[in-house]
Amino acid sequence: MRLFRRGLALLETISAEAETDARWLALHIELWIRLAYSEAEFGTVADGLARLDAVRPRLAELPEGPVQTELRGFMDHIHGTLLGRAGWDEASLPLMESAITHRRRLVAEAGDGDRERLTEALVASVSNRGLSFVILGRLAEARRDLDYASELAAEYDFPQKTAYLQHMLGDLEKRLGRLPQALYHYGEAERAYLELGPDMLYRLRIDQAQALLGAGLAVEAGRHLDEVLPQMRRQRVSQDLGEAELFRAAAALLEGDLQTAQQLAGSAQRRMRRRGTEGWATVAELLGLRVRTMRALSSGRVPAALVSTAGQLAARLSDLRLGEDAALARTLAAQLEVRRGRVDHASELLRRVPRPKPHTPLEHRMLLRLCKAELAAAQGNRRRAFAQARAGLAELGQARDRMGGLELVSGTALHGQELGDLAMRLVLDGGESATEARQLFNWLERTRAQMYRYEQVSGLENTQLVESIAEIRHVGHALREAKLDGRPVAGLQARYNELRHAATRLGWHAATRWGRPRPVATVEDVAARLGDRVLISFAASGDKLLAVVVHDGRVRIVRLGSAREAAERTRRLHADLNAMAPDHLAEPLLQAISASARKEADLLDAQLMRPLLGILGDREAVLVPTGALYAVPWNVLGSLRYRPIVVAPSATAWLAAAKPESDAEGTVLVRGPNLLAATGEIDKLAAHHRHATQYAAERADVRTVLDALDGVDLAHIAAHGSHEPDNALFSKLELADGALFAHEVAALRRPPRQVVLAACELALNLIRPGDEALGFAGALLASGTRTVVAAASRVGDHPAAAAMDDYHRALAANVPPATALADAVGVDPLRRPFICLGSGGS
């Protein structure tokens, strides 16, 4: 702005006669147009539009010809762009059409010297009109414009325009609900922006975050925005900053952080209102209303004023032609009225909500289904309530089927969590008969651990991701060596984090689809496979913990007390087992921790298993945990000691893992570095497997181990590992040349039939909404491995080596894995907290 004003001042120093010179006037008009755009970005849209209105009449003073045509096209382009930035996309279209008409004429009449410059301007106008079409939902027209602009950008080699068009194509795919494709285009744009125009990354991060929110990855979306919000605040570009705050608030809302969501939504609303973009300000107000609605619904106190506010906001959004947002506001008003018991008014409000369009956000669709289901339940129509929940989860399943990377597949569960919870409550309100038990089983299978429902169709084929992970491994190895040597690590750590975040983004679109969806398991399917075993599927509804038990072709519900108490006992037991893991604890300390652990295990056993012993008897069990119960090493409970137990993320996942055996063959034994107590472990295990292939110390590098795992029957890996809570697919095992990541294991074309993770806590660590259990073991199971043996808590080197010797001795005698592990763990369950995941069959 300062430079443009200086330019105008310099023009004013020229004599008055010069004002009749067409060149002077053209430059004067151009500087005013550029100043108007800058003022709109830095100040208010009204300021910028007023500048444009003031200078527009001067265009008529120019003689007709190319100069006037070019400036008319430029004026209309900037005017239309400002309207689009303010959210007035419908109003921007005639201006963009005019700009395109002027610029096409110029290109057609241009000589060779000017054609490239004028074509670049044409590409800009066509691209911006395409973006307005995307926002307005006119997607065929958007595709036409973006394809045409892309052809021109490629023909004339405009790298910045090509990058921007990748960004726009990402917006188009996001609007179509094709999130992996959107993230792919955003990734391509990001690579170019880093080289050509890093300032464009701010806008890109906003759009990437919006796509991630659509996939339920609220934490990842928030992290994206947290990276750029400080720089954006320094730059003070109020439009982008307001949008970033708005979507950061949406991420906080999905995370359940209502205070942060309220603060950021309020900040975005004030910023947009000062800027004069009323549409955006009202959308930010809507997000604040969602926070207030959630607080009111959770407290049980719904003031009439809040319903009135929602109705008024819906009307204002309709006046602003923001139809989808108006529909959301009316849905919130209806949901509040249902809770107030005013079902007739709620029904009337819902009648005014239009049918969702194909590109309506998934979150809005699920909220509408939830509201309709709650209304039906309040009217006493349980059948209609179940129908709405079933239809909503079917829509969610269709969206999940279109997802790419494993994180996207698992993240979408967030959007269906409330529908599943409502269905559970409705079933439980109906009683505990066999019919209700069967219904509850079916609902649990529809809602939990859906990522394990997919049969992967191919390995990882994204070469960029493969190369990126290799670089992460190299930098990670260098970082570890620097730490051991006592050298500075800040630069390496920053580089490692940067590479990992970039690889995470690539992983979201590593495949068009994760795999082929399998049908959800029915009670009949499970009963046919169980035989004499018992399947126990745990579930929580509010603070009520219960088990759905399938046995002998029957199904029943057993109530198990407080879910919060069970979670707290599990947390304390897990902490005790971690504390007693080190190999050389002082004996008095070991005894004290052991006593505490035994006490917590006994309390858990009394709550979870003893009420089921009448059904379970002495039979084997398949356990499907929920939430915190994934951290329980089940054989530590007295009722389950020495009992063969298999843990599965869902009954559907268990059935998939228990399918007929493949042609996998051979045994691979791997020992990673720095396992002093396990130096002779691989040799001892090899004695149980006559033809096993061994990889120890420097031979156990990542490429060698991955090749060995592909198609093998049994793989035993004794290596230090760690779980990455911010991205489970970067959980890792330390090998000779660095980390082997879960991402890479999921890429195997022929996953190993059984994997034993012998020296680390890498069972199902990260539990997302919908009981989507991720981690190193989860990646193995999701990619087709049938049985994984891993520790549910930390384990010392000596107990791990002893347990594995016992386990492999039994395997060599053809004992099934679950039975072999139960015997091995039963010797010392507190120091051997291993669990058998997946199938557990021989």
TrEMBL record:
InterPro entries: CHAT_dom (IPR024983), TPR-like_helical_dom_sf (IPR011990). This is CHAT domain-containing protein. Pfam families: CHAT. Residues 601-824 form the CHAT domain. It comes from the Bacteria. The lineage of its organism: Bacteria, Bacillati, Actinomycetota, Actinomycetes, Pseudonocardiales.
